[in-house]
Specification:
Translation Initiation Factor IF3, alpha+beta, globular, BirA Bifunctional Protein, domain 2
């Protein structure tokens, strides 16, 4: 009788495969309140590395980290009409505290444009105070109807940037730089996830924004996942919160503001972009354990030798761990590390040690014999190759599943397998409505060369459409 697979095959049931990986790779569990999640140590280790790499890029873009309160007066949200209307269905509102009814309800932050706006108005007085570039790492709460761990949860972790500028041009430039040089660069070079960058249609814009830019990635089932967004808020929030300044001529002007964010949704994107039927595949740059040194069988100094290999790798900057659980079958341990997606596995037994060798296996590849003396160099090469191969593979898969079409009907059909690219002028808002009736959305608008258009109505703009998470 055939042995049942540990994970549901992707081709059989992709959503169930995703749930299986979350559990078997020990990434996260559902929290006690509907829609919340408990991130386990291995999953949080991935998030910490993502956070560190993203934080370096945010600081390189000139933003400083701050922290703002979790609770926001309800009146703040009501001061920007589109904003409160857009978020009202998702708000968690506190009406009682300390055993008494509050004089004014407070909202558990769904995002922080309003509270940042209140304090930016205090901190900005002159053009010399601009641009004001701020970022915070925090949790937010949005009451989701159909939660899914990492992808869409009631509470999630993220970073949100908020900036104020003296001119529309400077705000627009910064919003685009964040999208292209912070977000897209991180996703491609750290997560090995290729992304399309573009602008959202008017109906898909962030509530209160005059322009929204996005990074869109394709998952292995052909669906899209929005990985990060950057918004030009115009002067909407500046006027609502009196964020103004004296220019160099002594005239009072309203600022131009932006906001931008990425979240633990990226962990879900990493799982669904790279994972296979054997489990997770973690790009080396965000792998909490880049190398696991597995003791095949104890004896003749094998554990000591494995520890020395681990220490040598750690000294070289590699995140390595020894697995000396010889009471657990070796096959079971290998399967567990495959499910967790550890990039490189080194196997060492008495015979290997006697011959002065180890067996080295990249995740999902055949094993090769490597001299003990050269293990550090071999590991470095393997990690670099795997990082590159994951990006190349994901890019080929995405491009092969992106079809150019000429009609709404063809776009809907293509969206059953991947992305469709259609001229925006051929689609238009009427076509966008027709797509939505079939649960297909315009993910972003691009120029034919993949660049971000300056205007959604510019000549040659193309719409990327897909089903999405």
């Amino acid at each position: 009788m055939a042995k049942a697979p540990i994970l549901t095959p992707q081709a059989e049931n992709f959503p169930q495969w995703y749930q299986d990986v979350l559990a078997k790779a020990e990434l996260a569990d559902n929290g006690p309140v509907r829609g919340t999640m408990v991130i386990r140590p291995y999953g949080y280790g991935i998030w910490e590395l993502m956070q560190a790499a993203m934080d370096r890029r945010i600081k390189a873009a000139g933003a400083d980290n701050v922290y703002f309160p979790l609770f926001i007066p309800e009146s703040y949200l009501k001061r920007e009409a589109e904003h409160v209307e857009g978020f009202s269905p998702e708000l968690a509102v506190v009406t009682h505290a300390g055993g008494e009814e509050l004089a004014e309800p407070v909202v558990v932050r769904p995002t922080s444009e309003t509270v940042f706006g209140e304090f930016m108005a205090k901190w900005v007085q002159s053009y010399r105070d601009l641009p004001l570039l701020l970022n915070q790492w925090a949790n937010v709460v949005r009451w989701e109807l159909r939660p899914r761990v990492f992808l869409r949860t009631t509470e999630f972790l993220w970073q949100e940037g908020h900036t104020a500028h003296a001119s529309r041009e400077d705000a627009a430039r910064y919003a685009r730089d964040i999208l292209e040089h912070t977000y897209a660069d991180f996703m491609v070079n750290e997560l090995a996830v290729p992304v399309f960058t573009g602008v959202k249609t008017r109906r898909e814009r962030f509530a209160g924004a005059i322009n929204t830019l996005a990074c869109e990635a394709m998952m292995r089932d052909g669906k899209a996942l929005q990985m990060g967004t950057s918004h030009e808020l115009g002067q909407n929030f500046a006027k609502a919160f009196d964020i103004d300044y004296l220019d160099d001529a002594g005239q009072r002007q309203h600022c131009w503001t932006t906001s931008w964010g990425s979240s633990t949704r990226m962990v879900g994107g990493l799982i669904m972009c790279h994972g296979d039927d054997a489990g997770l595949r973690v790009p080396p740059r965000v792998a909490p354990i880049q190398v696991v040194v597995c003791v095949v069988r104890d004896g003749d100094g094998v554990v000591e030798a494995a520890t020395r290999v681990r220490d040598e790798l750690v000294a070289a900057g590699v995140r390595a761990r020894v697995d000396d659980r010889v009471s657990v079958s070796f096959g079971r341990r290998v399967t567990d590390w495959e499910i967790k997606g550890v990039p490189v596995r080194i196997e060492l037994g008495p015979r290997d040690l006697a011959e002065g060798n180890v067996m080295l296996a990249r995740r999902g590849a055949d094993k090769t014999s490597v001299a003990l003396a050269g293990v550090g160099s071999a590991v470095s090469s393997a990690l670099d190759e795997l990082q590159r191969e994951l990006l190349d593979e994901a890019t080929r898969r995405r491009d092969a599943a992106t079809a150019s079409v000429g009609s709404v009907g063809e776009a809907i059909e293509a969206a059953g397998e991947g992305f469709a690219r259609i001229p925006w002028r051929s689609l238009g808002e009427a076509g966008e409505t027709e797509l939505a009736e079939q649960a297909v959305t315009v993910r972003c608008l691009q120029m034919p060369d993949g660049s971000v258009p300056d205007d959604v109505d510019a000549d040659g703009v193309e719409a990327l459409v897909a089903r999405s998470y």
